[in-house]
Design goal:
Helices cover 38% and strands 19% of the residues. By secondary structure, the chain is an alpha/beta fold. Strand 7 (131-135), helix 6 (139-150) and strand 8 (155-160) form a beta-alpha-beta unit. It binds 2'-monophosphoadenosine-5'-diphosphate.
């Protein structure tokens, strides 16, 4: 089989442009060491101009990779260039995890899985609510909308500064999804049991924000997909207003699980040692 070099241990990559800030090598190398598995995981910087040639080298085996992760700005192109994208990737139009199988490049998107698995671990029952509010309608929001819809939450409201982007996302994911502009935020938050921030609001250096969560249901959960800082201003305000919160770091850790299992043959566990390792790096 030309999928990878004969008898050599599996080798996986993470590629993006830039890539040096990716924490994926820390995660996968931690698991390789923890489970004593042969294999390697390396960051490869590939520009948009060179990405198609890189994927060709993965497909024909000349680069020696069994698969890898893809991050910004290549997720859409990775989807377009994979031979066998799965249903999740097709719906998102983006792939973040690739693997060679029987000479074909398969692709999926594990961001939605990572989002849901993080909340399953920290706040079981998070999906047993009638109404969810998702702030933001960018690339990161798509996978969250998909995951929340796939858990069967009845009413999902996307709120975004640019209304047309919210509408586009809502139309893509089906009839239970509603689109709003920012002025409707308070109104749609009333009675919601889940609030997710997918925007860069509150990220390191981003402008300060002020949120009133008092319309949420009692016990309604607030989560952020941003994890630098670990407690974003949105999470801090929610906590101070008496709502349970879950930070976004677990989404990063959990989205790595399906890829590791594909390339290295063992389903890894996200534990507190791994979480601490990444926190030290933040
Ligand atoms: P990503 O792929 O990380 O989601 P993106 O596609 O640039 O990045 O999307 C960023 C999201 O944050 C968008 O929903 C954006 O709103 P717009 O669609 O109106 O641009 C939102 N966002 C960024 N800065 C914002 C701000 N200052 N106020 C409100 N929303 C903001």
């Amino acid at each position: 089989m030309a999928d990878r070099r004969e008898n050599s241990p599996p080798a996986a990559f993470v590629t993006g442009w830039p890539i040096k800030h990716s924490r994926s090598p820390i995660i996968h190398r931690h698991w390789l060491k923890q489970y004593g598995l042969p294999g390697s995981y390396d960051a490869v910087a590939v520009s948009e101009k060179d990405f198609a040639a890189f994927i060709e080298g993965v497909k024909n085996g000349s680069l020696g990779f069994s698969g890898g992760n893809v991050t910004i700005p290549h997720k859409e192109t990775a989807f377009a260039l994979s031979d066998r994208p799965d249903e999740l990737a097709k719906e998102l139009g983006a792939a973040n995890t690739l693997w060679l199988q029987d000479g074909q490049l398969h692709g999926t998107n594990t961001d939605g899985y990572g989002f849901a698995a993080n909340l399953d671990g920290h706040h079981p029952g998070w999906d047993k609510v009638d109404r969810a509010v998702i702030l933001g309608a960018g690339g990161a929001s798509r996978a969250v909308v998909q995951a929340v819809r796939d858990r069967g939450i009845n009413e999902i409201h996307i709120v975004n500064r640019t209304m047309s982007r919210a509408k586009e996302l809502a139309d893509r994911f089906g009839p239970k999804i509603h689109a709003h502009g920012l002025p409707a935020l308070e109104e749609v938050m009333a009675g919601a049991g889940l609030f997710v921030n997918t925007t860069s609001l509150g990220m390191d250096g981003a402008e300060s924000v002020s949120f009133d969560f008092s319309g949420l249901k009692s016990g309604g959960m607030v989560t952020d997909i941003v994890y630098v800082p670990l407690e974003t201003p949105i999470l801090r305000q929610a906590r101070e207003q008496g709502y349970p919160t879950t930070d976004g770091l677990g989404m990063l850790l959990h989205q790595a699980v399906p890829g590791f299992e594909r390339w290295f043959g063992r389903r890894p566990v996200v534990d507190s040692a791994l979480r601490q390792l990444i926190i030290q790096d933040i």
